[in-house]
């Protein structure tokens, strides 16, 4: 379908005046208890406090869901008014559900309900370290079990018997890839956007695994990674040159206004678990288990995740007999959805074509 993009010159005004009021009318907020699913997977449930201070949210994961039927009732210009199913969004490292408001808006216009889970340690979900700027996880399997359980319950509820699709970015893409391997019939289609099949560590992954493992054993598990810092309210485009400044300023504004969105750095244990996740995802036997058709978007100027492991993952999935394709944006930064409209628009149109097309196999991907 043809997509009318938000004018970057009027981005903040349009988000404030049009997008957010519409999303508010079709949004449901809730807290998902992953305890039962984690216990079934052999994981000891973690309590973890919520930054909102509400004890009833302890150990729970925050989510936002958007109902396509309620959205259609608003009669926004450009809405398809045809229900196509639901999309579960798995966000990236240090991100949060509301960062995806613009993408949610486009998905709703296209006829999809949307469910966004704040991963543990992110957004309003439970945390297990005192520093709210730092992300820590004890076991990467927890991310995978949580996302799968969320999709099996809340996601399926919003899909209402129609297709349930997955959209992942970065860390969320690594988690999503592991979910596709372990729950091969859960999703109908999956988009992996610059997925963390392997993180960029500045050194060979094997060396990084050994080094971080030693540091965690020496007591650095809950310590901030050397060279990283807490969030500071000083806007900069450093590292995001070429991205849409209007979008970057919007995300920054959200972080400044909400302490729970100021996740900004990694604990050593998070890095250790990210590397373990990568090793598991790239297991050929695991890749052969994938049944869900995959469309992977690759950023040519990515400094956060590695491209070659993405290529290996897709090839192994194809070798296992499943449908998998790569679309490369050579000039894009890591967050393709944060790029100017000239990049974001064709990216979004290919995502919607992939989700909408009943005949997946196509030379256009």
UniProtKB/TrEMBL annotation:
Q: Which domain of life is it from?
A: Bacteria
Classification via SUPFAM superfamilies: alpha/beta-Hydrolases
Q: Where is the Serine aminopeptidase S33 domain?
A: 84-337
Which PANTHER family does the entry link to? PHOSPHOLIPASE-RELATED
Please state what the protein is called: Lysophospholipase
Organism whose genome encodes this protein: Bifidobacterium scaligerum
